[in-house]
User: What shape does this take?
Amino acid sequence: MNIQQNPGRILTTHVGSLPRPHDLLDLMAKQVSGVGFDPAAYDRRVSRAVEESVAQQASTGIDIVNDGEQGKTGFFLYVRDRLEGFEERRDTEIKEFESEVAAFPEYYAEYFKVAMAGGSIAPVVPLVCTGPIKYKGLESLRRDIANLKSAAAKTRHHAAFMPSVSPSGVGSNEYYRTTEEYLHAVGAALRVEYLEIINAGLLLQIDDPFLTNIFTNAALDMTQRRARAETYVEVLNECLRDIPPEKVRLHTCHGINEGPRVHDADLADVVGYMLRVNAGGYSIEAANPRHEHEYHLWENVKLPEGKVLIPGVITHASNIVEHPKLIAERLVRFAKLVGRENVTASADCGFSSQATYHTEVHPTVIWAKFSAMRDGARLASEQLWP
Assistant: This one.
């Protein structure tokens, strides 16, 4: 049986990143600057932060826990310490959500300054591949794994997962002859990380907002978008070869937090590629108002046998705490379409993809959202398993 399937009730999880304690952020800032940094003190604080995060996840009803990404400075940033062959380009601007920014320039000028970049301990700097790619981060990866396993052993939980970035999300290429050759090289290096997580007895979560981003790329026509999506799926499946799908879950999202979101990709464009990835669970945004209606898609799209759908039933982009009855309603909808054993309650996306002093959703509200999700899952389970 797929460990991600429900054991007679709706399980709960989240996407991965959670706010870091401020004293840990202070240490991270010293690590980034190299001024006054004490590696031993940093390692001790990360370990304690993971223990605190896992304990709080369990206490608010999360069944499938993780380390809160407490030891990572950011979703993109951590790979610079894990992969050889890249250099930073601090003089190059990262352009994000270009269609959205073009449509709402005043909003995003303020948003990037305050919500996304304000309070971050390190800027997001483009990484460019300038040499052969190799994995070099085993020591830090094994430390992350040990911290999570130690913390999880002290709590009641169904399973534990660790996120890792998709090959398509790592930098850009100036060394390999083709994009395909480059992506396969990145994938071969990241496979080391994937296998280490799996062999440690953890679920592997592939973080992949890049698959959805293809279908918002104005520089590509639909034929080009489909070809690139095919490449992404091919590369990722090569990374996952011989890994049992039930040990993997794929997280897709739309790459931004609070915003108009009018240029998000439709799930209908993405779902066929998503379901071809050799994973046992698929995490999608489903709680925010731009995507909640897409549950209707599963009236016609069949979830493959033995797979699990992990819809967001709480959103990462609002400080409003969803009512448990609404959460239960969302879960029952999905359960009736794909099977009650195949739905896990989750958030739309992470709550702190970068290590920052200012998260959009206040930490106290995040824990309240998790508690509401627990209660909503309980209500849904009572309906689904009367």
Notes: The chain has one domain: 11-384. The two ends are 22 Å apart (CA to CA). Residues 11-384 form a domain with the TIM Barrel fold (CATH 3.20.20.210). DSSP finds eleven helices and eleven strands in the chain.
